[in-house]
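Suppose you are handed a protein chain with no further information: no name, no annotation, nothing but its sequence. What can you learn? This example shows the usual starting point.
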Amino acid sequence: MSANKSPGPWLITPRLRLREFTFTDRNDLVSMHKNPRVRTLLVDDYPLDRHVVAHELIKSLQKYYRQYEGLGIWCAERMVAALNITKLNQEEVRQNLTPSMLEELTTPKPRFAGWFNLMPMTDEPEEVELGSRLLPEVWGSGLALEGGEQLLTHAFGTLNRDQVWAVSHVEHRSVRYCVTALGFREHGIQLYDGKPAQYYVINQSDWCQWKNISRKNRQRYAIQLCREISN
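A reasonable first move is to predict its three-dimensional structure. Written in structure tokens, the prediction is:
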């Protein structure tokens, strides 16, 4: 497959699609990493705001997908319609659109949202790490949980991994909430790329039980636990 041709998604949920990165995604990667909100609490802040660095990342990923099936960093796309419900309810908007235009503008289409990854850990390549890096506009939408659930199912079901890790900046409260809602437990602070980082881990048997709890109840548990830790 050509590196410039957008491949079809390998993971699909009602709101999310994951597919391989191609060079056509380079500008989106650069734009995301120019946003200081995205980079504030990263533990591996590579200069992906530079086109040459983003290009080299995609180039290396194209090889990685072929060498290590089931692992990688994947482009995340969310399904969004060009015309939202607010505009759709405006009479002047509806009057100026033909039925075909209305259908086109209200049909959800994939839009860049960031990435999800399932990759070998830097210091322990036999172990795998789950992570995501998303645009601020989708923070709080539950997209990180939705993608995380699917990748844990992939890691434990398809890849038959014994355990999965997650790593974050020690002050990143949003990550703590998200991974707690996914069933991870804290595993202490260790060095990651030479920097202190908070480690989390979940094993296969725990996930098999945790995934059967409703997402709402898992979120409630995560909120309560994070409040207790903060206090």
